[in-house]
Amino acid sequence: MKPKVLVAFKAREEDKMIIENYLSGLAEVVYLHEISQDELDKVLYDVEIILTGSGRNLTEDILSKTPNLKFIQTLSAGVNAIPFHLLNDKVVVASNAGGNARAVAEYALALILSALKKIPLRDRFMRKGIWLRRMPHELISNKIIGIIGFGHIGKELAKKLKALGAKVYGINRSGRTDLEIDCIGDPNSLDYVLSMSDIVVITLPLTKHTKGLFNMNKFKLMKSNVIIVNVGRGEVIDQKDLFEFLKKNKEAIAALDVWWTYPRELDKETFQDYPFHELENVIMSPHVAGFSPDVRKEVFEHALINIKKFLLGEEIRNVVNKLDYI
Amino acid sequence: MKPKVLVAFKAREEDKMIIENYLSGLAEVVYLHEISQDELDKVLYDVEIILTGSGRNLTEDILSKTPNLKFIQTLSAGVNAIPFHLLNDKVVVASNAGGNARAVAEYALALILSALKKIPLRDRFMRKGIWLRRMPHELISNKIIGIIGFGHIGKELAKKLKALGAKVYGINRSGRTDLEIDCIGDPNSLDYVLSMSDIVVITLPLTKHTKGLFNMNKFKLMKSNVIIVNVGRGEVIDQKDLFEFLKKNKEAIAALDVWWTYPRELDKETFQDYPFHELENVIMSPHVAGFSPDVRKEVFEHALINIKKFLLGEEIRNVVNKLDYI
């Protein structure tokens, strides 16, 4: 009997084609949303691998019915939504870091330039007839951009920024990179990079080590006119401290694609605990950086290559250290 | 007696230093705003060269009192504000095209990415609690960008776009460029380039040939979801036709830094003849692309090198064909 792979999200026809393309002959693929309630328990019992979106829908019920589960692969780059406390020790989890890096990096660049040129602000005022003409715009070619969490997204973004003439400083766990940038350091250099950067781009995953990392102590190290871009996860920033920092430092700008509170239902009006929407020096983006039809196929392929490796007993990439999350 | 150069705008101290730096020993520099009313006629009589901002303040009075005028140099890239009908045939006019090209190109890139990722739109809605999450964002790396008026700005922009993986098509008068792009043509190829482009960037000067060039006939050639960026001059687009095109084609976006109607006084609420400010598919920018403190010095130097060449009898650049404007 071939190993069973559970696809735990609503797959489109084109998604299924990619999935079959990678796994046919190696595994039996079952689609959670197509299993009848009667068969569910029986089908789940044999599942060894789960392909999930972010892991958010992996309920206690599902996990309790999959005693043979060995491997969880996400489509998302972040795995913080996975209920790690419900997993057996033997279950390996792999993120899909890198899968949507091209899309996130390009979106981050758009946020950087929007903030640097103050385009949403000028647009909002001009719609009221007010021309913000005396407010200058600065060139990115003179700027230092600190990328905190210098991984796949950071590298893609750094290539673009270097091509535009900017200086790039990076922080990651190893303090190393194969890309030629202006400065790379490990977390011991974080405060130095924050103090030097004109623009701080956060691409960090949400782990127990990064949660609330950016608090007032960190903001105080930054330049008073810093631009903070967050395309990682909202909770790596302390919400209250960022709000107070922005309220006090009118020259600083935050361009945020990730948040603390999300809509519970689509189209339901959703605000944060603090009224960021009333601040002029915020650019609000509804967590879309990674979602581009232009990378959907490569996101799937990136995840499926890993599942195929697992099935063939080869070394898989992006294995998550579960202790970072528990 | 050394030739007299009239500086016809309010020069800052740092501007004066650059001016003296280039012209000392070659010319006598007089500052219009520092000449007393009594001396004005006498001083103007000897003026051979005028350095002006855009030429807007060259009144009939000033021009009638400068019978020895030989050369007008602007600081602005465009010269459409010069009252050409008041000039003697012998007066040579040079634009400052290229002086602020780095700033305009970077701002144009910011407008392109803002529009492609729909950042001002998402920001406006999220401030009302509405998360536009299902609206995808496309990658620029798959896009054809047509740059109409492929000169200094176009070349600077093309380098950035190529580095981001986009395809660049250009149109200029000669149909030639020394930069390697994907397609370059003369005005006979305009319609073809408009029909092929995902994004149309207009960097044209306003002349009698370009006025109203972009009318409904041109918009009809474009893709229904085209992004139109204008950093040239507002009047190269027909205002009514653009408004109607945008109102009808909700998938199209216009990101405009140049307009038809400008504020007569600073801070006076100013709208256009058509209510662009009510359209969701417009990004409104108050004509700031060229104004960056980071290029102010090079804008001045670019103009002063030309004046110095004129004084030394060397060949000057950017000489305007006055027949394009009369």
Structural commentary:
The structure is a homodimer of 326-residue chains. Chain A is α/β, with parallel strands linked by helices and 326 residues long. Chain A folds into 2 domains: 4-99 and 294-319, NAD(P)-binding Rossmann-like Domain (Rossmann fold), CATH 3.40.50.720; 101-284, Rossmann fold, CATH 3.40.50.720. Chain A is 32% helix and 15% strand. Chain A has helices at residues 13-23, 37-45, 60-64, 101-116, 119-126, 152-163, 190-196, 216-221, 239-248, 293-312, and strands spanning 4-7, 28-31, 47-52, 71-74, 92-94, 144-148, 167-171, 183-185, 199-202, 227-230, 253-256, 282-284. A 7-stranded parallel sheet of chain A has the order 8-7-6-9-10-11-12, sandwiched between helices. In chain A, strands 2-1-3-4-5 form a 5-stranded parallel sheet. In chain A, strand 10, helix 9 (239-248) and strand 11 form a beta-alpha-beta unit. In chain A, helix 1 (13-23) packs parallel to helix 10 (293-312). Chain A is elongated, with a radius of gyration of 21 Å. The mean pLDDT of chain A is 96. Chains A and B meet through helix 4, helix 5 and helix 10 of A and helix 4, helix 5 and helix 10 of B.
